Each structure stands twice: as C-alpha cells, then as structure tokens.
Amino acid sequence: MISPQLDLIQSAEKREYQDRLFKAVFGRDTEQSKRWRLDLYNALNDTSYTDPDALELNTIENVIYITMRNDISFLIDNKMTLYEQQSTHNPNMPLRGFLYFSQLYQLHLTRRELDIHRSKLIRIPAPRFIVFYNGQTEKPDTFKLYLSDSFEPKDQSGDFQWTATVININTNHNTSLQKKCKPLYHYIQYVSRVTANKKKGLAIKEAVDDAVDWAIKENLLEGFFKIHKEEVLAMSLTEFNLESAIKGWREDGFEDGKELGRQEKAVEAAREFLKENIPPETIAKCVKLPLEKVQELAEELSVKV
C-alpha cells in the first residue's frame, strides 16, 4: 500500500519544477542568483569580491545526484567549489563528492582541450566540497567526513582521501555566517518556518503554504518568494514530502537489520513504488538499491520508465 504522502511526491515531481530550493536561490544563471552566490562565497571565505560574473558556473545536472539537481560548482581563485544542501545526515557525501568531482574535472579538461597523456604536468583547480546541513539530527557547527571511512578493509596509510566539510545551517548554528550572508539567512528562515510548522502538527502542505505567505510578507530574498510562489510551493512540497518518506522507510527497517532482510524489503518497496510510476532514480535513492536493480525490476513488471 502506497501512502498518500507518496502521491504528493509523485504529483509534485511531474511538474516542470525540477530544482531544489537551495539551487533555485544560489545556483541559477540569473542576476539575483549570481549576486547571492557571490555573497555566499565571500561569507565562507572572508573575501570581498564584487563582480558576480567572476564566478564561472559549471554545474553538471543529474549526473550523480539523481534526485538533487542542485549542485553548485564554480571556479574562482583557481579553486573548484561544490556546494550542496542536505536535510538529512549522509555519511556517504565524500564518496558522492569524489564521483561528482571526477565529472567536473573531466568537463574542465575537455573545455580547455587538456590532454592527460602529455608529458607536461597539467594543473587543475583545487577542490573544495561544502555540504550545508539543516537536518533535525543535532550536529556540530562544522565537521568533516572522510572517504577513507568507507574503505573495507580499513586503510590507515592516508594515501587516498576525499573530504566533505559539513556546515550546520540550522537556526542556532553558525550565526556569524548567517549574518555575513543575508541570502543564506533568508533561506534558513524560510526552511526553519516550515520545520516549526511541522512540529506544531501542521500537514506538510499547510506548513509550506504558511511559510511561503510569511516569506512574502517579510519580503525575504528581495521578493523571490512572491515572484516564484508557485515554483517554491512545488519545490518545497517535493523536498519535505520526500524527506518525510525517507524517514518513514528508515523507521520501517529499510536501513537496519540483517542485510538479506533489508534487501528483501527494499526490493518489495521498489516494486510497489514502480507500480505507482515513481521515477526509478528516486526509488533507488530512497530504498538504497542500485539504479540498475530498480530498472531490472521495472522490466520485470513491464513498467515504462
């Protein structure tokens, strides 16, 4: 039995709005988004750049992050910076970042016609991977996740490493950063309003509706919420419904217990979701099955994906 919650996810995902709110604010090719992106970069790095066009946006969409087309990567000071927002704690961020940066570097080499087989050393931008975390599990202001934690067997050499720096952007964390970056502060205020509404017992749609109306009244993000109201509503409903669904699946035991039992439950859930025309990419992420496995199940069920 598929919950009504998943029906909301499905209907929202069928809309034309594919971005998550974080990318809509900081990762688009609009004059506003360019300014906000520069504000965020300056706040994080204690710099004072004034030209938004100095940031070369080179986002790759829908490559590694199947349901998150919101990754913001740009070149400045010869650094390649990738930002992502996460509403749940994910220890696999270093691995995801490692895979995603491989795509970004390939794009970088191709655009500049650089040949890795040449005898001269190729210089590439230094990487920086930042994860903005605003989940409900209590976390420090800033902490790091390391790729080597995933190695089996454990490798103590330190020869192979990739790091994700996680910055907690919940209301009472990193307040100095929020003060330095007004767009980030406004984004956090909106998300916090939705979260507070949910804690009061409001249904997700009511929680989002109230938060959007409040953001419009407070003129957050220079009127962004008023101009893009319908889009923000669609993005928010998708994000918060999916977040709740993932939490429910985890509580039902898809993440805990013996591996065989987990796999069986995940496969069973994937079959049910496919029958409801939930996108395979979303299913793969939520029930923690390889995308190829979900596609195989779709073929077995003769479901068009």
Walk me through what this model shows.
- The longest helix has 26 residues, at 229-254.
- The two termini are 20 Å apart.
- Strands 1-2-3-4-6-5 form a six-stranded mixed beta sheet.
- Helix 4 (93-111) links the parallel strand 3 and strand 4.
- It is built from twelve helices and six strands.
- It is α/β, with parallel strands linked by helices.
General shape: globular
**Proportion of residues in helical segments:** 40-55%
What are the segments in which pLDDT stays under 50 over at least 5 consecutive residues?
Answer: 1-18, 62-70, 256-260
- Please describe the biggest sheet, giving its number of strands, its sense, and whether it closes into a barrel: 6 strands, mixed
> Roughly how many Å apart are the termini?
20 Å
Which structural class matches the secondary elements? alpha/beta
If strands are numbered along the chain, what order do they take across the biggest sheet? Answer: 1-2-3-4-6-5
Count of runs of 4 or more consecutive helical residues: 12
Q: What is the subunit arrangement here?
A: single chain
Helix and strand pattern = HHHEEEHEEEHHHHHHHH
Beta content comes to 5-15%
Number of strands: 6
Using the CA coordinates, give the radius of gyration. Answer: 20 Å
Overall pLDDT confidence: 83
Secondary structure elements and pairings:
Elements: H1 4-13, H2 21-26, H3 31-45, E1 56-57, E2 72-76, E3 79-86, H4 93-111, E4 126-133, E5 142-146, E6 163-168, H5 175-180, H6 182-199, H7 204-217, H8 224-227, H9 229-254, H10 259-275, H11 280-287, H12 291-300
Parallel strand pairs: 3-4, 4-6
Antiparallel strand pairs: 1-2, 2-3, 5-6
